[in-house]
Amino acid sequence: PEDNKTVDSEDEFPGITEEMEKEIKNVLRSGNQDEVLSEAFRLTITRKDIQTLKHLNWLNDEIINFYMNMLMERSKQKGFPTVHAFNTFFFTKLKTAGYPAVKRWTKKVDIFSVDILLVPIHLGVHWCLAVTDFRKKTITYYDSMGGSNSEACKILLQYLKQESLDKKRKEFDTNGWMLLCKRSQEIPQQMN
User: Fold this and answer.
1) For the chain, which domains are there?
2) Which residue from 22, 127, 158, 165 has the highest number of Cβ atoms inside 10 Å of its Cβ?
3) What does pTM read for this prediction?
4) Backbone angles phi, psi at 175, to 5 degrees
5) Each residue of 136-147: pLDDT tens digit?
6) b/e per residue 29-60 (b: at least 16 CB within 10 A)
7) Is the pLDDT of residue 4 over 80?
8) Inter-CA distances, 153 with 5, 44, 156, Å
9) CA distances from 98 to 5, 41, 94, 167 (A)
10) Helices 150-163 and 90-97, interaxial angle, to 10°?
């Protein structure tokens, strides 16, 4: 059934060819920091952006947004859960200005038709991720530094209620939904 989409572990992390390895080394080397290395999803990635992936650097908005778009693109392939990801500005705008400030962000997408909704959350010094899984009726908060943020989960649940009323003209059924914050030992840890 469509609800139980999984990916074979072999396909989840494809191998890196010699040619790929050469290209990776090329983009990670020193050079013009403003050189455009990739353009897709109406986003531009420069060498400076890519450098945030090295060592213990802090990831910037461009890298997070590009990756979120890559996940959405991959989710169109057979066998993958369908994904919609908001950009890095969504949660801050929702939290500070409320639903009216973000209600047009889904003008062209029905978030209730996807399996997974991803919301990157920036806490000033590091990134967290809130994952709404419509199949499991969960909103799960992931923080690699071990923090919990039930407030973020509550804000997102309230967002789903308002989005349903606005776009579907019906109440969002929260019956059976769980708000979860993963403990630090349950997720990969950040070292910086």
Assistant:
1) 15-78 (no CATH), 81-191 (3.40.395.10)
2) 127
3) 0.82
4) -60, 125
5) 999 999 988 777
6) eeeeeeeeeeeeeebebebebbbeeeeeeebb
7) no
8) 24, 30, 5
9) 33, 26, 5, 16
10) 80
